[in-house]
Amino acid sequence: MGSKLALERRRSYLRIDLNGLARTRISVLKWSLLLTLGWLLTGCATAPKPALPSVAHLFPADALVTQRAMLTVRGRQFTLNGYLASSTAGGQRLTVTENFGRVLADVLVKRDGSVHVMRSSAVFRPDWIQRYVAADMQCLFGGAPGTDCPGRMLSPTHFTIERRWYALDLRVVDIKPGAQPPELFDETRKTGP
User: Fold this and answer.
1) What percent of the chain is modeled with pLDDT above 90?
2) 30 phi and psi, to 5 degrees?
3) By the 8 A CB rule, do 110 and 185 touch?
4) What Å distances lie between residue 45 and 37, 39, 40, 49, 179, CA to CA?
5) pLDDT band at 167 (very low <50, low <70, confident <90, very high)
6) In a shared domain, residues 67 and 153
7) Chain centroid to CA 181
8) 61 and 113 together in one domain
9) What order of strands is seen across the sheet that includes strand 91-97?
10) CA 62 – CA 85 distance, rounded (Å)
């Protein structure tokens, strides 16, 4: 009799433990499901990228600025040269070339903010030049950058801009102060500087 009673006690403890374990497993599953669902709904909390401060005061208002840049698009890197002619009366004109001198993009931004694509190429389409090249030029060298300037100033001559599809690492190589020829800022003339 005593052994039967002991066997019954063990079975009842076993039933209680198994039921408690099953309840615990369901409870853990519910909590992990709730936490995962909450994490998916709220997303990751990342700090917004700071906007690039205005750096136009670092350069003369009338000058020819020579630049070297590394453009990274989807993991591929391209080296570029840039020539920015800036004029207080005419605006800004940027000519982007490859290493061998072929013009990839030529854009004129007038003082009133109007953008004129003077020359495009297969590498830089006109809409891409208008949307990104002119915007990045205004971020770096414009008087009052907009809120969409996701860049950093690493030194007075070294800047980076990081957008969703590309990153631009730009270094100013040479600055030649002085008045620029007014025909550079005439949107009706399609010649490069």
Assistant:
1) 35
2) -60, -45
3) yes
4) 15, 10, 11, 12, 48
5) very high
6) yes
7) 33
8) yes
9) 115-119, 103-109, 91-97, 76-87, 63-73, 166-177, 158-162, 151-155
10) 8
For the chain, the average pLDDT equals 79
Host domain of residue 5: 1-46
Give the DSSP letter of residue 183: G
Please give the model's pTM, rounded to 2 decimal places.
0.69
Answer yes or no: are the C-beta atoms of 75 and 56 closer than 8 Å: no
> Considering just the CA atoms, what is the radius of gyration of the chain in Å?
31
Q: Is 51 part of any domain?
A: no
Same domain, 6 and 68: no
Six-digit token string for 152? 């950093």
The residue type of 49 is K
For the record, the structure tokens of 37 come out as 């669902």
The DSSP letter of residue 56 is G
Q: Tell me which residue of 74, 87, 131, 73 sits closest to 105, measured CA to CA.
A: 131
Between residues 39 and 75, which one has the greater pLDDT? 75
